[in-house]
Amino acid sequence: DGGITQSPKYLFRKEGQNVTLSCEQNLNHDAMYWYRQDPGQGLRLIYYSQIVNDFQKGDIAEGYSVSREKKESFPLTVTSAQKNPTAFYLCASKRGDSFSPLHFGNGTRLTVT
Amino acid sequence: GIQVEQSPPDLILQEGANSTLRCNFSDSVNNLQWFHQNPWGQLINLFYIPSGTKQNGRLSATTVATERYSLLYISSSQTTDSGVYFCAVNSGAGSYQLTFGKGTKLSVIP
Fold first, then answer.
1. CA-to-CA distance for B110 and A36, rounded, in angstroms?
2. Cross-chain Cβ contact B41/A31 below 8 Å
3. Cβ–Cβ below 8 Å for A101 and B31
4. Tens digit of pLDDT for each residue in A79-89?
5. CB within 8 A of A89, min separation 6: which ones?
6. Rounded CA gap, B107 and B82, in Å?
């Protein structure tokens, strides 16, 4: 079955450590996205990528980094520079045109203490 | 950028009741989606509806693009309909970013 796989589902880290969240899709989608959701809030865009080896900052990119070396994969690194990293992180993908729908993975809950 | 407002922010329904959720947006759009986020955080696509009307079982949606709003109708609500409903839009040819509203939290009680 085609879909978007995020791993792990839950992640715990100590403050000051970098952590990488995985996102893989087998939908052959060109565009991939990372969103952050805080309790009781909507989704905010961190980074997005329209094609391999290219990505753009979203609304809240500070303290995060991404790479897009393969079409299927778009990992997100939460660095120690991110002041409030504890959140629910959602990866999404879509075809490479502005008229197609967005599809989401099941998310990773990151807790930093 | 485009602004998205959803109303009401919270809604409590008795099982079996009907409801209408609204999404207003500030600019013309070429992509509008409704999502349901279940209590486990999973986001489910409900409708891709930049214009017109669609129905899927007890759910239907209408987008009036010229008046910049979309409505999500839920009929004969069930407890499994509980969760948060998000509207998301993008505007402009070549725009790849979806902007999300803050959501409507629906609680259906038995």
1. 32
2. no
3. yes
4. 988 999 999 99
5. A6, A21, A34, A35, A36, A37, A46, A76, A78, A107, A108, A109, A110
6. 5
